[in-house]
Write a structure and sequence with these properties.
The protein is about 20% helix and about 25% strand. It has 3 helices and 6 strands.
Amino acid sequence: MSASSLVGLPSNEPTTMITCTRRLEWDALHRIPKHESRCRAFHGHRYAAELTCAAERLDDLGRIIDFGVIKERVGAWIDAHWDHTAILMRGDPEAEALADANERLGKPVYWLDGHPTAEHIVEELARVSTELLKADGVRVIAVRLWETPNCSAEWVADGLPSLPSISLPSAALPSASLPSASLPSASLPPSNSDS
């Protein structure tokens, strides 16, 4: 499937595309052997992944794929292989006892061939989710993995058109700005929990 054949992406206009994104979350332990800092110790994260999908055409209801199907297929795989277990590097000398304990407790360790960094985990999730959803005619085009609320890694499918960069002439930029001292202080309105 070429990028120009995806929904909303006619071959003469390669800069638009309709996608859908499903968020999935789970808890897992990992460690980064030889890490320079504290991440070399076993520790856990509340991972969140955002899977972005596209298709050649919308289904009869006007969707790329039902969000529930993504949860059923990819979410079930995550629950079975990554949730409440450890994602570790094959050959990690510190992982043997933990792997034995998890095996006895019914949650075997998921082994990666490289360090279980956010970058390697997102790459593995992209590979797995691509396989799980391709029978539905869906292409996974991006996966963002949040390891913490502040840190993420993103995988983007090969062959997607890059977005054009926009340059503004310097004359279009404002020539003066207000000094911060001249701005009035603002107070935030009380939050409305109903919105």
